[in-house]
Amino acid sequence: MNVKDLKVGCQTFTWEMLGDRFAGGPDDLLKAISNGGYAGIEITDTMIGRYAGKPAEFGAALKATGLTLVSFAFGSKSGFTLKDQIGADLETARRWIDFAAAFPGALVSMGSATVVSDGPRDDKFAIAAEFYSKAGEIGREAGVQVAVHPSSHHNTLLFDRADYDRIFSLLDASLVGWVPDTGHILRGHKDMADTLTTYRDRIRYVHLKDVDAGGTWAMLGKGVCDTAKVIEIASAAPNFNGWLVLEEESETAAADPAGAVKTNRQTMRGYGA
Questions:
Q1: Which run of H or E residues covers position 137?
Q2: Quick one: the chain helix, strand, coil %, rounded to 5?
Q3: If we measure between CA atoms, which residue out of 130, 54, 35 comes closest to residue 99?
Q4: Strand arrangement of the beta sheet that strand 68-74 belongs to
């Protein structure tokens, strides 16, 4: 895949992380992302707002702003690590998979497994893998690809390379894909390029995010992320769909989310995307 074939989308967590400081709704997100020069959006269950359960209406809103739904992302208070919550989590997965099915090519991104209860940490990988795999089966039946999105946030089960090795050893690569997030990988892995290369067959699309040498979120291009290398590896990945989704969590974005994502889009043009 050539750089000119890449598509650039924006994740809505830039606004979600503001909590009560963001008083807008999904239409405000669509407008800001479209005005920022993006072609696509990844929206979450928290930010979908009035469009939840109304894919036709959301599709009309996307069309009006010239955006494509890249992926729908969701998480759970269970952290996907509570055995007795697997059934409820799968019902949630089915709901959002059915929603995404209305948008050809859209994926469903499942949040990072997270430790939310006592007990051996090692035991929680099997629970998470059971959920992810069963969600993958639901997705396959609906014609929607699903993927796991590890994070480096507090109590994540999927932080360092050993964690990635463990969860991926339990997942069928053809059933459950991977949304690598460069910022989260850099915070937990000594060699991001090796992790991306080792598991490149699992890559479906990429979250591009930057951090400084200490692991603090930074604007894209202002930290230690080797964006050109990421693009090189992803572009050669056999199941990569061409979408680079920019996600911004820095203090700059907290002060001016719309301005920050617009700046990041301009930064990507420097890489030819």
A1: helix 123-142
A2: 45, 15, 40
A3: 54
A4: 177-178, 146-148, 107-110, 68-74, 40-44, 7-11, 243-246, 206-208
Q: What parts of the chain have a pLDDT lower than 70? A: 3-4
Give the SS3 label for residue 265: helix
Closest CA to 43 of 62, 76, 70: 70
User: Is the alpha carbon torsion for 182, 173, 10, 4 positive or negative?
Assistant: positive
Question: From CA 163, how far away is CA 2, in angstroms rounded?
Answer: 32
Tell me which residue of 135, 150, 235, 139 sits closest to 188, measured CA to CA. 150
Strands 210-211 and 217-218: antiparallel
Instruction: Tell me how far the alpha carbon of residue 258 is from its chain's centroid.
Output: 19
Full DSSP string of 103-129: STT-EEEEPPPB--SSS-TTHHHHHHH
Nearest one of 248, 209, 202, 250 to 227, comparing CA atoms:
209
Token pair 């709704």 is at which residue? Answer: 25
**pLDDT tens for residues 43-85?**
999 999 999 999 999 999 999 999 999 999 999 999 999 999 9
Predicted structure pTM score: 0.96
pLDDT of residue 5: 86
Return the DSSP state at 120: -
Contacts with 27 (C-beta within 8 Å, 6 or more apart), sequence order: 61
Maximum distance among all alpha carbons in the chain? Answer: 49
- pLDDT value, residue 88: 98
User: Of 240, 237, 208, which is closest to residue 225 (Cα–Cα)?
Assistant: 208
